[in-house]
Write a structure and sequence with these properties.
By secondary structure, the protein is mainly alpha-helical. It has one domain: Serine Threonine Protein Phosphatase 5, Tetratricopeptide repeat. It contains 4 helices and no strands. InterPro entries: Ankyrin_rpt-contain_sf.
Length: 87
Amino acid sequence: MREHPPPRRFNYIPGIPLVACASEGQSALLRHLLRQEGVDPGVRDLNGNTALGLATANGRSEAAGLLRTAQAAGAREDGVAAQGAPA
């Protein structure tokens, strides 16, 4: 019998792991995901919920803080890049 790799249901939708970690309060994993290049801390799930919104609604204050910090850092980088300075 041929073995098949595990399904990738969780990984094929961009942002879903980030939203799930935030919602569940998995701060260590959330911190790791936020360090990855190109990760959008403002990503929404299939229902339109943001990671920050779900973290806040579920009382995950540490996860919410990590997301706020990541969003603020991204906004600062975007502002610097928009002014023509190196980001």
